[in-house]
Amino acid sequence: MLVVPSTLDAVTVHAEGALCTRLASVPCERGNVPRQVRIEGLPLSLRIGSLRAAVLQGPAGLSVREVRPVLDVRLPPEADLPATQRALEEAQEKLATVSAELERLQRDLLTLRNLKPSFPPRPKDEPRPPREPALTSVLALADFVDKELATLHTRHLELERQQRDAVTEVELRRRRLEEGSSAVRGQRAQLHRAVVLTLSEAGSEAVAPDARVQLTLEYAVPGARWVPGYDLRMPRTLDGGSLRMRASILQRTGEDWSQVRVSLSTARLERRAEVPELKALRIGRRQPLPARSGWREPPPGLDELFTSYDAAQPSMPPPAAPPPPAPERTRVREFAMPPAPQRITQSVLPVVGGASRGGPGGGAPPPAVSAPPPPPSPAPSAAPLSAKRKAMAPVMRYQEEMDEESVKELSAEPAPSMDLLEEGEDTAPLTVERARSASRPSLPAEAPAPAELEPAVDLLDYASLELGSARDPEARGRLHPQREALSREQLVVLGVHLHVDVFALIASSEQEAEDLQQEEPPAWCVPPDHSTPHFDDRFDVETRVEVPSDGRWHTVPVFSAPVGLSPEYVCVPSVEPRVFRTVKVENRTPHALLAGPVDVTLGDEFLMTSPLPTLVPGATQRLGLGVEESLKVSRNTRFDELSGGMFNNNSTLMHHVRVELANRTSQRVTVEVRERVPAIPPSEKDIKVEESEVTPPWSKHTPPPGETPVEGERAWRLTLKPGETQTLSAAWSVRIPSNKVLVGGNRRT
């Protein structure tokens, strides 16, 4: 098998997860394309069911027949270990050395503490020795113990300090290793994914000796996110500017994205997007139901395919001695348990071999499976009962889901009258397991096969199927689900003697990907799937970028958005006597500008960060840029209340407003000044509002899309030259009955 290197070429980051594309170049040795190639170094967290491979460049007729995932264990040499891993191992070795020496010193201290000087015992009849030599020895021993204890205590304090420093160093090195990229994390045994690709034979076209076959491999990985953001740069005069879209990408997939083409998608990677099947309704004759995709009819003569294999097998030796006859139940009657009509699930085993007519590239045959009629049953004396059961068994296999109670009731019934039981047959009592096995036998030879059969769901998952062994007459030549609880790749790894916890590493990588979803995005950022609930979009990054697998947010530029920027100054003196800078942003791109923060820069100075809502193509939104201190505004009001009418039964409320606006900038500016007159509800027909003496004339304000309209709002729009001052005035009257008072008071200025 040829191991070929591969490079990560493109990555599509979705709302949760990413779709990676790798390129591999396969050399042709002597003009021959290898049948199997192996691509290693894939991340451990990739989704097995997302693997796709294709031939980008190669001879005509060459295709990828099989994509099989496996596990790859690497033992890197010392030179390839990262510096952080090497430093961690050195710190751990130093900690182990200090801890061992400290433990040995503690044992020495305990031994010295137990060393207590004492006088040796002597017999009673022995004369008393002189006291002076013994006392001198005891004092010398006590002095020795004190000096040694003082030396060991000093060394003990030094070793404790070294141990604390070593523990701190190990923790620091471990944290640095965890904060680094997960793609270069240096374990002694590194576990990766690998893929084995099986290629088909090329056509009759000749292949050059130095030719290369270009392969592409696609797979999905969790543990990647992105959020949009923007950068708005405008001159201080607000005439023009540019809006650039950027993206903050967070990934911990296990591999660094180095110089890759990145695309950003708002769609969810795990969402099912199957094309619905529209069934036609026809009037007239009944039409057969269309076959399901993936169905394959068993080839004719499948059982005869293994005739020579069965003939070559040695026959089973006869039993040593026939079993003794049972005292009472010497006769059994062969019976077939009738299947319950509500509890039978018919499943047909797909078959390997032959041309496929049910795959993606062609129409599927009808689901009804034609089978040759079973041979006639031989006489009881000519063949054993087991051969008769085999001849009576139908071609289709039935899986019956029976209830425990029904089986127990069946087993509790007394045995009926029985035919002769051949030697070697089982005469044990009927149990639940035996009843289930007895429920599979056979249908009568004259019973026709079902007209329509639907394959089980697990039989259409071809990646998890395996071919039955030739020693199993019921499953050979057919595909069936794997009986092992573990996948094939896990069984391969279990057969290798490695000191690696494979399942723990896989679970750890999956847990890291799940924990990545809990990371808080930057301020004002909105997840892309939240700002586009009804549509999905894709953005292609202009240049190749690098995003390490370290679990941190990295900002990359996406593209420069061609938008329309119209600067405006807005003032609402009745609310705030200040003039605010705004800019109208019109989306002229074919994409939707998603909601996110926008950093505003005026000239060379950063101004502020504002939230930008989602803008569909052609939409307009006003973006605030803060207060313009060079534009001064003041507002003066006057209120008069008059009585009128024939019997003084009406009150007239006169409101006068005067606004002065001064331009202290060095360029011409256009300012929109907004006022609001009282709005009368339709139910109050006896209240009137009249506008008068408006200089210059104002107009009703129409808010842009996305802004809430304000009832009774009016707007002046004027242009001021540098150093110019203009005065705006307006008056309106509110006529109400004398017995009514406006809510909140009559004064409305």
Written description of the protein model:
By secondary structure, this protein is of the alpha+beta class. Helices cover 18% and strands 32% of the residues. The chain contains nine helices and 32 strands. The strands form eight sheets. Strands 2, 3, 5, 8, 11, 18 and 19 form a seven-stranded mixed beta sheet that branches. Strands 25-22-21-28-31-30 form a six-stranded mixed beta sheet, with no helix packed on it.
Structural class: alpha+beta
Q: Averaged pLDDT, please?
A: 74
For the largest beta-sheet, the strand count, sense and barrel status come to: 7 strands, mixed
**Terminal Cα span:** 88 Å
* Poorly predicted runs: 325-452, 484-489, 491-498
Oligomerization state of this entry?
Answer: single chain
Compute the number of strand runs. Answer: 32
Structural shape: flat
Share of residues in strands: 25-35%
Gyration radius over CA: 44 Å
Number of helices: 9
Helix content: 10-25%
Coiled coil: 81-115
Domain DUF4140: 11-109
GO molecular function: lyase activity
Biased composition (Pro residues): 315-327, 363-381
